[in-house]
Amino acid sequence: MDTVKKVVIGSRGSKLALIQANWVKTELEARYPETEFVIEKIKTTGDKITDVPLAKIGGVGLFTKELENALLDKKVDLVVHSAKDIQTEIPEGLTLGAYTERKDPHDVLISKDNVSLRDLPKNTKIGTSSLRRRSQILAYRKDLEVVDIRGNLDTRLQKIESGELDAIVIAMAGLLRFGQSDKVSDVIPYDIMLPAVGQGALCIEIRDGDLVIEKIVSTLNHYDTRYAVKAERALLAKLQGGCQVPIGAYAEVLYPVNIKIEGVICSLDGTTIYRDAVIGKVDDCEILGEELANKLSGMGGYHILREIRDSLAG
User: Fold this and answer.
1) Ordered strands of the 258-266 beta sheet
2) What is the mean pLDDT of the chain?
3) pLDDT of residue 2
4) Separation CA 151–CA 46 (nearest Å)
């Protein structure tokens, strides 16, 4: 392999994004000590608009487009994404070069007085920016009030401390990367809430055909995560969903050669929920994701997603 003296890593400028990018940087430095790795911060559309619920902003690639443009323009050599932020269609000329080992994909509750989701009092006010979380919370507890919030972890925690909110739901993986998992009041089980597609995993995007960078980042590939996330993304692509649609999915490799994927489509008010699972060979992970998507769509999920898209467009 040709040697490369310097590799520029593109990242969003948020605290969590930089923690993730610096983790990738440290791992690559350990593998390639003769190469200099630097991080270039890039502001995305999703970062610039902080006072509007994500689902109402519209469009795709809210947290990726500017990073991908920098990659295509050769301003950076690779970019680090949260896998859940990546649109299902990768732009021409780019590819996902690595899927890093997934951290705990569960969603978790942080609540005043450390109360679990099951034991929250009626009319408790819960904050989340996710339609997926909103719909599954209401499917489980219709008596709770779910409100839209934006902002970083500190901002969200402050809303609890100030009394503006009683609780928030966020990803366990983010808390683990922040080193603040001790704040968790309740780890929400998968039978109540399936995570976002790719939640907990990082994906490294590179230019298609850049064999030097492909070789470098491939050392971070994690077998189980790669197949699981590919299965989940295939389901999302088949349903033509983005990261702001109420679709949950979780795939798990079952040794030695099988994989199981569960999926859910839920109406925004939580009154209608379609959920199923399929099991098959790991090598068929994407086919299985599409198969499950077809099952959920046929059960009635298609109509839910169409109604939601129409309401957001209007």
Assistant:
1) 247-254, 258-266, 273-281
2) 92
3) 61
4) 11
pLDDT score for 151 = 83
Structure tokens given for 292: 């499950």
Spatial separation of the C-alpha atoms in residues 35 and 29, rounded to whole Å: 7
Domain with residues 107-187, CATH architecture: 3-Layer(aba) Sandwich (3.40)
CATH of 1-100+201-221, one of 3.40.190.10, 3.40.50.20, 2.60.40.10, 3.40.605.10: 3.40.190.10
Task: Let me know: does 185 contact 111? Beta carbons within 8 Å.
Answer: yes
3-state class percentages of the chain: helix first, strand second, coil last, to nearest 5: 40, 25, 35
Number of C-beta neighbours around residue 225 at 10 A: 24
| pLDDT confidence of residue 266 | 95
Comparing 299 with 313, which gets the higher pLDDT? 299
Q: What does the pLDDT read at residue 57?
A: 42
**Cα(290)–Cα(8) distance, rounded to whole angstroms?**
35
- Quote the pLDDT of residue 63: 72
In 162-248, where does DSSP find H-type helix?
Answer: 172-178, 211-218, 223-238
Q: Which pLDDT belongs to residue 150?
A: 79
Residue pLDDT, tens place only, 64-113: 889 999 999 999 999 999 999 898 999 999 999 999 999 999 999 999 99
Query: Do residues 18 and 9 touch, judged by C-beta distance below 8 A?
Result: no
Give the predicted TM-score (pTM) of the model. Answer: 0.91
The question of whether 148 is a catalytic residue gets the answer: no
How far from the centroid of its chain's Cα atoms is residue 97's Cα? 17
- Annotated active-site residue in 77, 85, 107, 166: 85
Q: Which CATH superfamily is domain 222-314 in?
A: Porphobilinogen deaminase, C-terminal domain (3.30.160.40)
Q: How crowded is residue 104: how many other Cβ atoms within 10 Å of its Cβ?
A: 16
32: which 2 tokens? 């390639």
C-alpha Rg value of the chain to the nearest Å: 19
| Inter-residue contact 269 to 137 (CB < 8 Å) | no
